[in-house]
Design goal:
The protein is of the alpha/beta class and 445 residues long. 36% of the residues lie in helices and 21% in strands. It is built from 16 helices and 20 strands. The protein is globular, with a radius of gyration of 23 Å. The protein starts with a strand and ends with a helix.
Amino acid sequence: MTTLVYGLGIAGRSTARFLSSHGEPVVLADDRVSVEHQEFASSLGAELFEGPDAAMTCARRMGEFAQVAPSPGIPESHPVIASALRAKVELVSEIELAYRHEQAGGSPRPIVAITGTDGKTTTTLMAAAMLSASGHKAAAVGNTETPWVEVLDEDHTAFAVECSSFRLHYTRDFRAHAAAWLNLAPDHLDWHRDVESYRRAKERIWLAARASDVAVAPVRDESIVASARSTAARVVTFGLDNADYRVENSALVGPIGRIVDVGQLGRALPHDLTNALAASALVLESGLGTVEGVANALARYQHAPHRIQFVAEVDGVSYYNDSKATSPHAAQAALTSFDRIVLIAGGKNKGLDLTSMASQPKRMRAVVATGHSAALIEDAFSGICTVAVAGSMEEAVHAARRLAQPGDVVLLSPGCTSYDWYSNYGERGDDFARCVHNLTKENIK
């Protein structure tokens, strides 16, 4: 059974390595020509198609493949997807392949899964920490930096799987003991054909749910709750109030009572609390964790970088790095966390409406627009506050410094991807932090 692995990024390479190590033949392809790709293919003894004609070559050879495993970076509009569909060759994502191999092993390990427009990685890492604190050897996998197939052969006893829409889009059998859909807002319209395609992909997290499974849904999103209730799974809700898992008397509580005091958490912004509640629901309702383990994990949890991360205070102004906010919906979570903001926003848009970023006018001191979408950011905030335009991160930080006053927050929360100026959001966040730290050095001189 030969698998065509199309796209040789992190997930694609991991998928190819895994299949090859299990004796399953692979053919590799990528739209880019790269010495790295050639060396990787050689290491596996695999045939490689690369460059602008790769999709056409694969189309001619499609009858030779039992399945196509597109990497998460291959959009549904890509020619190889159309070729596979025409030839009725199954499309499978990395998490679908991992799930099938896990089930075929005879002793499948428990799984909790998380999807949503925002908060997926944080909730996944929280859930994995809770599982570990409850006695499991747990791994956070999927859309995190670790593909699931990368650790499937290791001796973990439970998995927390972060499920992007890209990975869910090509699933059929994938099933978790407990699965959470955190929220929904338009995103990734440069990958999905439309918003409905994006929504349908998210909904697949519950596609194979059974009556013994748990669907965790945000109480404030009636459409997600309705989707959960349309499945066979038992539905549990989370939210700041009026939910099964909620905040009450300054504590996170669930059906079992108090879980942990809010004051014990390292950070307690509204979205931090809802992420913690969702993770608690997953781990406790699945029966995989203990209240003590959940509480200990939350008290010790350190947020990942580039997520409303404090960088420094300069001249009475606090600088925060929220480079992970690559959509307007993600940026709004940061914008509602502070009262007087000089926002640095922009980058490569994903086909989204950026005007929703201007939904907090009373909080805005000024905006510095950057990157390919600078004009769209300008338009979004026109008439709301002062808008400056910067041609580099260094210019943006200096402009923000001039516009900010003591007590303000300078917030990098771009609402766009980083792929105009940077290779990833981490590189962008690091550059922002470097520029901010340079301000502190200038003050010392």
